[in-house]
Every structure is written in structure tokens, then in C-alpha cells.
Design brief:
6-stranded parallel sheet, 3-stranded mixed sheet, about 40% helix, alpha/beta
Length: about 325
């Protein structure tokens, strides 16, 4: 545990992690293991193939937690990728993988003879919808649109865990920046060729967080008993899309002046483009800051410099 951040003594815990094979999940498993925790992945039943350990099949409403040792904590990251065209089928998968799967997990945790003390559950800044340049914190109300509706239902699905006395933290994630995955990795090829630029007007705010700060924030939420409910997992310095693309171009020493007009974003990506790429959420991590969490990369230029350095670690 990072004592300089939390002021707490190190805690070794048995932590169940869902979505452990995903981009963020792999980094979380590595980080918690390095910190001395015992990580138990909740594997898909098909992948488990009868091997010992907890497993689930969310689509079938099946979950087996009995084989897990006493769990101290849960980090719930599983969910269908948002970055796709939102067809009716894709929307159904996104909803089921977040809302239905979260409810299934929380009901199973609540039935355990000794439920874990804490559950850190991923959510998203999409909760706030498209809000222009309004400064948003955890006290701000929900927005409108598909993402906002999903996030509200996603967080509400954890109610069985709360009723069982589990401290539930909803980490509302912004854009997670890492060299080896996520949005930044998808942007790098075009920007390295000098083909990057703002999306639409570029005035929409992008709230972001460096992967390293997210990993530390997840562990912080596990041990900080005062934290429950919504917690914004974003840098304290959100930037406009125009500022983001300019900073990325400068970090790569490449021009970034080829904008993608709003109509083209909508044509290429449909509703996902309108809400996730052109929507604006200027989000502040008020509760993390109030709780004493110290960001290592609060400012975008320094974060990009670190992430893009050849010697930078993958996590």
C-alpha cells in the first residue's frame, strides 16, 4: 500500500477481480499482486473448464463463488466495450454486461456467509451526459442519453451489495490513458503519421486519468473506509479535445491539424460518436482530493511525456 498517499498501514487482502483479462483488469491484477494482495480472478465459466476457483456466466445468470476463499474485497471491471457502433444488439449487450451482470454478482456476494467488506465497481463519467463547460463533481445530477442511463442503472444494480452491508464505491472513470491500450493506443497510429486533429469543434471537455493514477485510486478506494458511493476517477485538470490533441501532437513532435468534422464523427460512429466523442463532461475528482489522494499525473503534458517515453513501464 502507498502509505505516503493514504496514511494507512499496508493491508494484504483477498481480492476478487472481474474483467481481469481486459486492458485495465490486467493492470489491476498486476498492481494489486505487486502490492501484496492475493488476487482471485472471476473467470468466465467457458474459460474455467471445470478448474477450481470462482467462475460465472453472466449471460446465463450463473455464478459460482463458493470455491473462493474468504473474500475481503471485490474490484468489478467487467463489461462490454463502449467503443463500438451502438446498434440495437450492441446496446443490449452493453446493458446486460453492466447492469444485469452487476446485479448477478452483487446478489451472489450478498448470499455469502461472510460478504466482503468493500466492492469497488467501475462506472463512468458518462453518468453526467453532455454538459458543456459546466464543472461537475459527485454532487452533480445525472445527464441524459444512452450512456447516462446505463451508468445510472449500472450503479443502482449494486443495491443488493449495499443492503448486505458491503461498502460500495462507484468509480466514475474518465478516459484512461495508457501506452499499451485504451483510447490513447487507438489514437497513436494516426497521430504518429501527422494525421491527428480535433474532433468536431474541439471545445468538448475530455476528462481523463493516467492508468497509474487509476490503479493507485482503486487501491486507495479499497482501504479508505470513508469512501462510498460515487467517486470520480479523473485527473483534476480536464482539457478540451482541442487541447488534448494539441498536447498529443506536441508530445509526439507531429502536427495535429487535421480535424474530423462533427458530421463525419456522427457518420462514422453514430450515437456513440455523438455521446462519447463529441459530448462534453468537465469532471472534477472532488471526493478523491478531499480524502487526501495525491495524483502523480494531474497535468496532461506531463502524463503524456511519461506514457510515451520509451523507457516508461507498461503500467
Amino acid at each position: 500500500m502507498d502509505q505516503g498517499v493514504t496514511g494507512c498501514r499496508p493491508m494484504s487482502a483477498n481480492v476478487l477481480v472481474t474483467g481481469a483479462s481486459g486492458f485495465v483488469g490486467r493492470a489491476v491484477v498486476a498492481h494489486l499482486t505487486k502490492s501484496g494482495h492475493r488476487v482471485v480472478p472471476l473467470r468466465r465459466a467457458a474459460a474455467a473448464r471445470g478448474e477450481p476457483g470462482p467462475s460465472w456466466n453472466p449471460q446465463a445468470g450463473q455464478i459460482r463463488l463458493e470455491s473462493a476463499r474468504q473474500l475481503d474485497a471485490v474490484v468489478h471491471l467487467a463489461g462490454e466495450n463502449i467503443a463500438q457502433r451502438w446498434t440495437a444488439a450492441a446496446k443490449a449487450r452493453i446493458r446486460a454486461s453492466r447492469v444485469d451482470a452487476t446485479r448477478l454478482l452483487c446478489e451472489a456476494l450478498a448470499r455469502l456467509p461472510q460478504p466482503p467488506a468493500v466492492m469497488v465497481c467501475a462506472s463512468a463519467t458518462g453518468f453526467y451526459g453532455d454538459r458543456g463547460d459546466e464543472v461537475l463533481d459527485e454532487q452533480s445530477g445525472p445527464g441524459s442519453g444512452f450512456l447516462a442511463e446505463i451508468c445510472q442503472a449500472w450503479e443502482a444494480a449494486a443495491e443488493p451489495a449495499r443492503h448486505a452491508g458491503i461498502r460500495v464505491v462507484h468509480l466514475r472513470l474518465g478516459i484512461v490513458l495508457a501506452r499499451h491500450g485504451g483510447a490513447l493506443a487507438r489514437m497513436l497510429p494516426a497521430f504518429r503519421l501527422g494525421l491527428g486533429g480535433r474532433l468536431g469543434s474541439g471545445q468538448q471537455y475530455w476528462s481523463w486519468i493516467a492508468l497509474e493514477d487509476l490503479l493507485r485510486g482503486i487501491e486507495f478506494a479499497l482501504v479508505e473506509s470513508a469512501l462510498s458511493g460515487p467517486v470520480n476517477a479523473v485527473s483534476p485538470e480536464p482539457v478540451t479535445n482541442a487541447a488534448f490533441t494539441r498536447a498529443l501532437g506536441q508530445a509526439l513532435r507531429r502536427p495535429a491539424f487535421l480535424p474530423l468534422p462533427a458530421f463525419a464523427v456522427k457518420l462514422l460512429f453514430g450515437q456513440m460518436g455523438r455521446e462519447a466523442l463529441l459530448g462534453s463532461a468537465r469532471v472534477r475528482p472532488a471526493r478523491l482530493l478531499q480524502s487526501g489522494f495525491a495524483f502523480r499525473f494531474p497535468e496532461l503534458t506531463a502524463a503524456l511525456k511519461h506514457l510515451l517515453a520509451e523507457s516508461a513501464p507498461l503500467s
